[in-house]
Amino acid sequence: MPGTFRMALLFFCVFLLFDFSNSLPVEDADIIYLWDDYASNNIDDDIDNVIDISDLDSQAYGSPKNESGDAISEWTETSLMNPEEMGSYLEGDILIPNLSRNGMRDKTSRWSKGIIPYVIDSSFNQDQRDTIRKAIADYHRLTCLRFVPHQKEADYIIIKNTKTGCWSSVGRIGGRQEVNLQSPGCVSKKGTVLHELLHAIGFMHEQSRPERDDYVTIQYNNVKPGAEINFKISDKKNTNDFGIGYDYNSVMHYSEFAFSKNSKRTIEPKVRGIK
Ligand SMILES: [Zn+2]
């Protein structure tokens, strides 16, 4: 796991430890709560400390789709893209459930004290369960986040493979929430599990960072028609890098061929020698 990723998680964890008393979401159905605005120390103002994806309208919502499952079922280690990049959801693998009547917006928040109750569905085989447990072990070894077996907690994640695609919501959405890891494609690499769990923890994609155009060039000419949404930049006022610089090696960074229509690169580094 790259050092900067560890650093980012460390910052995130430190923040969790000090800030959970006031990070519970207020009642506002228009916004998604991910984390507070660490950089501006604006930690008491819940309204300012949100990720607002309302501008994505209906594109921000999804339900599992067969075409994603078909693509992932054909995924192999030699495929150009990672399985988590094959979904037809927001940025490939972020699922915002259709919970509200207008179907436009939703909210999430952080996990209290950095503790994430979880269940691994019995439908995974032993090897697949081992891959998930190794990913969880990485979090326990490298961060202060703790995945604990679900008991009676109201909010928890269920890791399952009964739907198509690799996907998760971003952050805690309240109650039971699913992290889907279609098998075997989404549990072939520990990195895919780490990636989806990071969404569930509350992180977006690295290449969505506000300053990403300083680091990579998006080759829109090579992007599948309709997939441009996957390269949208997050609004600076609503996202937080926790003081950690752009990380080409982040497990949250898409690969160079993500959403390519022609097997040519869609993401190219601006810095020489970077892969
Ligand atoms: Zn993702």
Automatic annotation (TrEMBL):
Residues 102-275 form the Peptidase M12A domain. One of its GO terms (biological process) is proteolysis. One of its GO terms (molecular function) is metalloendopeptidase activity. Residues 1-23 form the signal peptide. CDD domains: ZnMc_astacin_like. Pfam families: Astacin (PF01400). Its cofactor is Zn(2+). The active site is at E196. Its EC number is 3.4.24.-. Keywords: Disulfide bond, Glycoprotein, Hydrolase, Metal-binding, Metalloprotease, Protease, Signal, Zinc, Zymogen. Binds 1 zinc ion per subunit. Zn(2+) binds at H195, H199, H205. Coiled coil: none annotated. InterPro entries: Astacin-like_dom, MetalloPept_cat_dom_sf, Peptidase_M12A, Peptidase_Metallo. It comes from the Eukaryota. It is an enzyme of class 3 (hydrolase). The keyword Magnesium does not apply. This is Metalloendopeptidase. The lineage of its organism: Eukaryota, Metazoa, Ecdysozoa, Arthropoda, Hexapoda.
